[in-house]
Design goal:
This protein is mainly α. It has 7 helices and no strands. The chain has a domain of 146 residues.
Length: 234
């Protein structure tokens, strides 16, 4: 009796490869930029144009942590800048007052001062005092401002000059008359400056007068630097 040819057993059904959804249901709509990725074998879906009148949706980024607040070390304060303009103005005002006082001193004692050494000592002392006071004020108000220091040095030098030069017109007005002072200002207005740098003893340049300018400027700069650089108390 003949037998039928051998047939292999049937293979079990294979699950679909390109359809991860076993129930073949449509995927719910997803917002652009969110949701699961496209199934394998299918092209990704791109979002259409945004509706007119609505801004585009911006992606959300995680918030960055802010650094913690760090307090300054104990006993120290934040460094505050000084007022350079105010320092220069106050220095000019104080230098004017000191120069006016020195001019009054010369006017009151010019008859008693007969020694050139005493006159030079008074001139240098006034220059040093003017520079020190201006420098202390500039350093206190302007602090570390180089512009304030330069302005204070120039102001102190001008104060040393005018403190000596302004005494001559007052002496002329006192010894002669105001008409003589008017004639001097009209015909020879630079006579006080010439008398300031001219030496009666040698007939040349009075180097002590020029030294007073350097001394006043140096004192103002040095004192302003020391006062401005000093750390404020806690």
């Amino acid at each position: 009796m003949s037998q039928p040819p051998f047939q292999p057993p049937p293979q079990p059904p294979q699950p679909p490869q390109n359809h991860p959804n076993p129930y073949a249901q449509p995927f719910p709509p997803q917002q652009p930029g969110f949701g699961p990725s496209a199934p394998p074998g299918q092209h990704p879906m791109y979002a259409g144009p945004h509706p007119v009148g609505q801004p585009p949706v911006q992606p959300m980024y995680p918030m960055q942590p802010t650094p913690p607040f760090q307090a300054p070390p104990f006993g120290q304060r934040p460094d505050a800048g000084g007022n350079a303009a105010g320092a220069v103005f106050l220095g000019l005002l104080v230098s004017f007052v000191v120069s006016a006082l020195y001019t009054g001193l010369i006017l009151a004692t010019y008859k008693d001062i007969t020694s050139t050494t005493v006159a030079n000592a008074l001139s240098l002392g006034h220059a040093l005092l003017n520079g020190a006071i201006v420098g202390a004020l500039v350093g206190k108000v302007g602090r570390g401002s180089n512009g304030a220091r330069i302005g204070g040095a120039v102001i102190a030098a001008l104060g040393a000059f005018f403190g000596d030069a302004n005494a001559l017109p007052l002496i002329i007005a006192k010894e002669q008359s105001f008409m003589a002072l008017k004639d001097m200002l009209e015909y020879n207005p630079f006579l006080p400056a010439k008398a300031w740098w001219h030496s009666d003893a040698t007939g040349g340049v009075d180097w002590f007068s020029l030294l007073s300018l350097v001394l006043a400027a140096g004192a103002a700069w040095g004192v302003a630097y020391l006062v401005g650089s000093r750390r404020r108390p806690a």
